[in-house]
Amino acid sequence: MAGELGREAVDRGFDLLLAAGGDGTVNEILNGIVGSRIVFGQLPAGTANVLAMEVGLSGRPDRAATELLDAVSCSWRASVWTRASSANSISI
Known about the structure:
By secondary structure, this protein is of the alpha+beta class. It has helices spanning about 1-10, 25-35, 50-55, 60-70; strands at about 15-20, 40-45.
């Protein structure tokens, strides 16, 4: 399901996609946006958050959001999706 939401963001012309979740959610979303030019950022909200830790993001979603938004320059519009999904894990 997270991959489908990522593809929907691409199809709707979003410039930036921030997703709250862990490594499994990130893996699904990346599979949905692969090949696009959308900018992606993770708001760490999973169990381990290995990817976020490896790239130096804060473990707090609010701080990570600020870090990510400070790092990109693009015009964006807010959209909130509130669908839950089960996620698989990835290994890094």
